[in-house]
Amino acid sequence: MPELPEVETTIRCLTPKLQGLEVTSFKLRFPGIVGNKEEKILKKLRGKKITGLRRRGKWILIDFDSDLSLLCHLKMTGQFLFCSSKDPIDKHTHFILCFKDRKEELRFRDVRKFGSISCHLTSEVLSFPQLGPEPLEVSFYRFRRLFQGRRGRLKSLLLNQNFIAGIGNIYADEILFEAKLHPLTPVFLLGEDELRILWKAMRFVLRKALKYRGTSIRDFKDAEGKEGDFQSHLRVYGKESIPCSRCRKRIERLRLGGRSSFFCSRCQKEKRC
DNA sequence: ATTCGGACCTGAAAGC
DNA sequence: TGCTTTCAGGTCCGAA
Fold it and tell me: Which positions on chain B have an atom < 7 Å from some protein CB?
């Protein structure tokens, strides 16, 4: 479910609540989300204080004192909840952190169980996922350089976390519509002007999605259970056969690597070699 | 070397 | 109504 805006929204919601809290215990109800090795390391969290939360791509980092960090990925349906320990625990809640002098606890729930939590040394945690630059931090010059010598389709590249980190299926489609570029465009055909338009579109769409606190189409909720508002601003994603907001031609859908891509065939003309 | 399908899971919605 | 199929904000792996 979550891409950069949803992950960032989750972190912004959690940070003021978790900052400074000391771990007293944890419950692992479904060990599958952490490796067996990690289960051992997790015990080291007892007595540690949360110093802060960070995002890198779609990863969530929870930093503790004494050089420990949790590295978490929500995948499709993962969700963090900060709630009263008296609230009922449903069957999809897999991991719980409890804190000193607090009635609230941090829960990780994940219907599809794709998500993951692992524990690392803070000094090493970022070397684990091999990720491209942050879309909202990368300069145009570096962005342009990323494309040098690359092959393949434009949308596939935007989804490649190695290439750039944090964009997923919804925002890739929205960015391409904003930039008026076809998802199947071979990247070597892109010129300087188009790359600049793409870079601007990427920043525009992601910042707007952040402003509206993410997209809640199906599952996404922040750590207070609150939904995002960007779904009412989507222009192509999930809009098959609905008239394009720019030109009124019906939005089309195609399959790219097993995933749906929504686009306007009039606004986003396919480039030929 | 990219690209594809399948795998990992569950549940909602659509199709028949 | 009820059973079956399809689909889903992600990523990894192995095979064409």
Answer: 1-11
Strand C lies under 7 A from the Cβ of residue A260: yes
User: What pLDDT, on a 0 to 100 scale, did the predictor assign at position A31?
Assistant: 93
Superfamily the domain A4-124 falls into: MutM-like, N-terminal (3.20.190.10)
The torsion angles phi and psi of A172, rounded to 5 degrees, stand at -60, -45
> Each residue of A43-56: pLDDT tens digit?
899 999 999 999 99
**Is A17 in the active site?**
no
Question: In this structure, which CATH number among 3.30.465.10, 1.10.287.110, 2.80.10.50, 1.10.8.50 belongs to the domain A140-263?
Answer: 1.10.8.50
Short-list A53, A45, A22, A56, CA closest to A95:
A45
Q: For strand C, give the nucleotides within 7 A of a protein CB.
A: 7-12
> Strand, helix or coil at A243?
strand
**pLDDT per position as a tens digit, A100-138:** 999 999 999 999 999 999 999 999 998 888 999 999 999
